[in-house]
Each structure stands twice: as C-alpha cells, then as structure tokens.
Protein: Putative gamma-glutamyltransferase, Omega peptidase
Organism: Rosa chinensis
Amino acid sequence: MEDLRNYKVNVTDAMTANVLGYTISGMPPPSAGTLGLSMVGAIFSYFLVYHSVLYGNSDAANGDLGLHRLIEALKHMFAIRMNLGDPAFVDTHEYASDMLSPSFAKEIQQKIFDNTTFPPEWSQLRDHGTSHFCIVDADRNAVSMTTTVNYPFGGGVLSPSTAIVLNNEMGDFSIPTDISPDHLPPAPSNFIEPIKRPLSSMTPIIVTKVFINYFILGMEPLAAVQSPRVYHRLIPNIVSYENWTVSDGNHIELSDERKLFLQEQGHELQLKPGEPSLSSLFKDLETLFRWAGNVVEVQMKTFSMVYSLL
C-alpha cells in the first residue's frame, strides 16, 4: 500500500517524428509504441525516396517485396527495443531520438536485403491481451487509448475490496535467469529495480500497417483496414498471417502468390486464424468523419485508432 500511495504519474514531453510530411507524436520510453511506429514509418519513407530516385519506382513499399521489407523492419524494431527502459534509471533519450532520425532509418535499410531473410539474434518479450477505447466528442477532439493488465486477467488475482483485477506487469521486466529459445536474453536496461517502470511492449503493429496503407500507399480507409496483415516478433523466427472472414463475407488472407514469394525469400509462414477486429476513424478539418472497420464473426481482440488528417 505504501508503494501505491507514493506512486506519481510522470508528465513528459511527447516524442515526434516526421514521416512523409506528417508529424507523428506519442509516448516516450518506457513506452515502445510510438518509437516502433515512427521507426517503421521512417524506414518506409526512406524506401520510397531511395527507390524512386535511383530506380524510378515509387511503389517500393507495396507488393510482395514491400511486404518482405515490412517483415524485416519489424524484426529489427523488436531487436532494437532491447536498448530501451525506464528513463529514470536508464539514459534512453539520445538513443530514442536517434531511432526517429533519417540516418537511423538508412542504417536499418542497409541491413535489409531484398532477396533473403536472416535468422534472429534477439527476441521479443511475450505480449498479451489489451483493452482499448476510442472516443470522439462534439468538438471533434479524439482520443485513442490502449491499456493492459499484461497476461489475460493479469496476475489472476481479484481484489476483494475494490473488485479490481491486479496486473502482472512485473512480467515485462527482463529477468537475468530467464534464458530460453522463446525469450529475450537478459537486457540490463530493463532489469527489475525498486520504483522502476518496466519497458512497455504495447506496440500495435496493426496500427503501423494501416498507417502505411493509408498514408504511404494511398489506400482508401476500408481497403487500408481490410488489407491482409502479417506479424513477426523476431523469435520464434516465424511470419504469422491472417485467415478470417468479416461479417460482409470478405475473406482476408495473403494470396497464394504472396505466400510463395515470402517462402522463396526464406520466411517460414504460420497461419494465425481469427485474430483482430479493427476499427479506424478518419477525419480532417472540413469533411465529416469517415469510419472503416472489420467486424469478424467471432471477435477475439479489438484495436481502434484515430488518424487526424490535418
């Protein structure tokens, strides 16, 4: 109880990144979400410029090869996040700022090869279920918020006095003795210390994919939302892909041709049926709100987002 009484919310400046003329703002460390989105966005921004200037190809983030590049970028993102931690205990400011820079994106781009994939040297902490709400008021102010108790039902303990399900966020810390093929090697920047906040794993890749589809590839809202998604968390070295049907009968899955292309690049694919239901709200200063979403037959998870087109 003393720890709860002494807990204070840290108010910090947001971190921002400029991608294709858009400014992305979000939480600094120990949150990992904005850094991941900004880094992947910056990498694809560099891809577009690089391939357009040198090869006359403005479609460098699209198609089979664009999907391969996205997967490789995700793997690098999950490896790099091991350097982050609670800034009150670990000096992450300079490193986090570097992650958002064009020079960093170029460095990562040079490690991605279009004709092959590479086995991982690091892995990602296990991430689990979350809750989300998306609210817009009469003045067009919008909030998109994700919260989590880490594992399903958190620590599995219900407080009898408050009826609050207690989380097990301590599981987000790196444990020196926790060494296995499916876990990160010990990361000193995220070791447990008194009053220290663990590194957050809340990096919704589903948002990154829709951002790329809408802002970079120019898809319409519904197409951006219903485009088949992939996921790679570095270890195990497997690309998960969707296979599910929305309520209007539209089936969402990678094409056989795209699966074959990824396998030829060296990727191991694994079906991930019935994962997310996604809702997106798009708005600008002049037009009405536009909503686009998937409604799956059996909803397991729901993510929402708000994009302000200013």
About this structure: Residues 122-129, 296-310 have pLDDT under 50 and may be disordered. The first helix runs from residue 2 to 6. Residues 7-124+200-309 form a domain with the Serum Albumin; Chain A, Domain 1 fold (CATH 1.10.246.130).
